[in-house]
Amino acid sequence: MKKRVIAGLAAVLAVGVFTGCGAFGGKDIGRDAALEAALGDAGVDESDTTRLKVSEDYDDGRKTYEVRFDADGKEYDYEIAAADGKILSADVEVLNNGTSGQGSAGGQGSGTQAGSADGSASGNAGNTAGQDQQTQNGAGNANVAVTMEQAISIALERVPGATEKDVKIELDYDDGVYKYEGDIIHEQREYDFEIDANTGTILEWSEERA
Predict the structure, then answer these.
(1) Please, what CATH class does the domain formed by 31-100+110-114 belong to?
(2) Cα–Cα distance measured from residue 121 to residue 144, given in angstroms and rounded to the nearest whole number
(3) Which one, of 187, 148, 188, lies nearest residue 168 by Cα?
(4) CA-to-CA distance for 109 and 139, rounded, in angstroms?
(5) Do domains 31-100+110-114 and 148-209 have the same CATH topology?
């Protein structure tokens, strides 16, 4: 009798597990399909991108994929529904200097941004009227000992295989200290850093895997 009761409980538990998977797991298109949807909308080949990152997120209990990459002097950010691959949001920003990666040494400028209300970003990189570039926190005319190129080299030493194209960096002035702030995105990992602009010391370093 005991054996029958145990077997019955096991069967009930098994049904519960599979039912739970169906209820909470749901359909998931996967990272590759989410990336394909974003690249297709942008009209960009993966081989032409830099700073590519695909990460999972949840919005009001709904799983989504966050896809970002740089290509042709623009930065693309997408939110893709994991259930069906629908593009929930899309933004494209023209980078300050026309290239993916390095910002200006003066910390200048929010780039020109564009995006359509229906979530499509392809072909929408027009100019935003009245958007002036501004020097942040008085860093525009800074006289610092460490050049931006040197700061990039210091950061890249910590990320084997990464290149300057994977770096985004700017000079900032905070609490009386000039420092370079930026990030490196390489092989689905994002590294955030702060480097003292006069000593070259790495003040902060963090790593986040997609």
Answers:
(1) alpha beta
(2) 39
(3) 148
(4) 12
(5) yes
Q: Rounded CA gap, 78 and 158, in Å? A: 28
Question: Which CATH architecture fits 148-209?
Answer: Roll (3.10)
pLDDT at res. 132: 37
Domain ranges of the chain: 31-100+110-114, 148-209
Q: Rounded to whole angstroms, how far apart are CA atoms 41 and 38?
A: 5
Q: Which alpha helices (H) appear in 21-49, and where do they start and end?
A: 31-42
Cβ proximity of 71 and 100 under 8 Å: yes
Mean pLDDT per 10-residue interval, the chain, length 210 residues = 50 42 67 98 97 94 97 97 97 73 43 43 45 43 92 98 97 94 96 98 92
Whether 106 contacts 171, CB under 8 Å: yes
Cα gap 97→74, rounded to integer Å: 10
Q: For position 59, what pLDDT does the model report?
A: 85
Strand pairing partners for 208? Answer: 190
Note if the pTM is more than 0.70: no
